[in-house]
Amino acid sequence: MSEVKNNNIKFIDFCAGIGGGRIGLENLGMKCVGFSEIAQSYIKTYREFFGQDEKNYGDLMKINSDDLPNFDLMIAGFPCQTFSVIGRRTGMKDHRGQIIFGLINIMKAKNLKYFILENVKGLLNHGSGESMKVILDALDEAGYKVFWKLVSSLHYGVPQMRERIYFVGIRKDLIKDNVLFNFPQTVNKPELKNYLIDTDELEFSEKKRAYEAFLKYLNNKYNKGKFSVEKLLKEDFLVIDTRQSDLRLYRGKMPTLRTGRHGILYVRDGKFRRLSGYESLLLQGFPEKLSKEIKGKIADIYLLGQAGNAMTVNVVNAFGKSLLKFIN
Fold this sequence. Notes:
Layout: E1 10-14, H1 20-26, E2 31-36, H2 40-50, E3 73-76, H3 99-110, E4 114-120, H4 130-141, E5 144-152, E6 163-171, H5 209-218, H6 229-232, E7 238-242, E8 247-251, E9 264-268, E10 271-274, H7 277-283, H8 288-294, H9 300-308, H10 313-327
Parallel strand pairs: 1-2, 1-3, 3-4
Antiparallel strand pairs: 4-6, 5-6, 7-8, 7-9, 9-10
Helix pairs in contact: 1-10, 7-8, 7-9
């Protein structure tokens, strides 16, 4: 079956982060004509990936839509901290929760044809479902038929347990009544070991302070007596998630990467290793060549956080492909 591609669709990458959504759409032949991001560390990484001359339109809440070029599609992983179960869940009361309305204003001003939006699972039950209803009603009133689904990156080509809601919007005048959008089909999970391939030393050995801290962690009141170092080290590619209290083990898959989670270890060749920024990018579907090129240019601690906040390339690609099939 031939690849579904469209070289005519232009898009802008809003709430761009480091460009995971952009790569997913560019792989389908779509053309990026600008991005919008305000975090300086993310902008630095984004430019390393895509070039120093990329046009950043800055704070989307301050954008004059007349200053934007003509484009067909909006991609945006709009801020999720206000809806996430690990945040304070302030929702629409937080200024970040209002960003969805800034995006809708741009949609209406540019008479956009399509959009793909992403947010966390926590949005579904925030405010007993009221926040989700408000967003869907606002998109409907703006003139869009919206199809949404909660999916895990684990089912779309990367071995990461990352649940996110994806919204696909199509301007109502472009579709017939009662026509359904076919969500992308799932694919088999790839081998985790093909993603844990960093060869650099990751500051985790018996001679390092981090190792001593890990031993103390294994003996805290939550974990004492549950795990032995010897047994853990016998299982290659065992993933060890060192949360604040209890330790969790994963086999063949990675827990959700997120901005504040840097305590993920794994076993390889009988040794503990820290998950690196390079490996985190791979687990988000970023191309190996691009991920390798940025090593050393951006500090690892930043890459870990930025990858944790990115959109999964594979999932965006899958939803973009379904949208193109619908259009065609």
